[in-house]
Amino acid sequence: MTITADGLRAYGYDDLPGLMSLMTGDEKHGPAATSTLDVLWVLYDRVLRVTPELRDDTGRDRFLLSKGHGPMAYYAVLAAKGFLPVDWLPGFGSYDSPLGHHPDRVLVPGAEIASGSLGHGLPIGVGSALGLRAQGLSGPAVWVLIGDAELDEGSNHEAIAFAGPAGLERLHTVVVDNSSASHALPGGIAARFEAAGWSAVTVDGRDHEALYAACTAAHPGRPHVVVARVEPKNA
């Protein structure tokens, strides 16, 4: 943490573990949260065109957390970036806290969707990208973060199969792969997306420079997926 010229606190990546440590209690889904930490930071720090001041702007990028059953890292990053007060974090999961075990878009500033049920985020992302295209808004990007276990859900495969032929170029997905999927995918996760016409890159999900390069890679005319490999959930 640093202090800016106007006396405000500014948080960086190194502050995130401390912010996450403020969130205590049961049912934290710790591995689900920590697996997403680096991806979330790179997106909010370097990729997404959204700030607390622009969170209702029609030209903003949309970030949809589908992997919402372990939102501690998400809340920590939102707090670090000024979307919500840091002093909300210790109340995580308590009866009267806006920070529930699954994010609620009505209660969490900056959250685009309520999430936590596996398989919902990517279909919503497809609809969001289609809606923006129908409105003639070619600037905003739609980003969806899903876990590899969500690929066990048929709703995601329908979304993948539709988005490629539809040429949803402004749709982006990050799959955090911590080896928790029940069903193996021949050729790996990226191959499933490529077969449906997506651009795909697989990287180390802890390497910030590799994540940034993958997230900003050109993919004209196609949706784009970044497969971010992290340590296995049960390692």
UniProtKB/TrEMBL annotation:
InterPro entries: THDP-binding (IPR029061), Transketolase_N (IPR005474). Its cofactor is thiamine diphosphate. The keyword Repeat does not apply. Residues 29-226 form the Transketolase N-terminal domain. Keywords: Thiamine pyrophosphate. The keyword Signal does not apply. Belongs to the transketolase family. This is Transketolase. The lineage of its organism: Bacteria, Bacillati, Actinomycetota, Actinomycetes, Kitasatosporales.
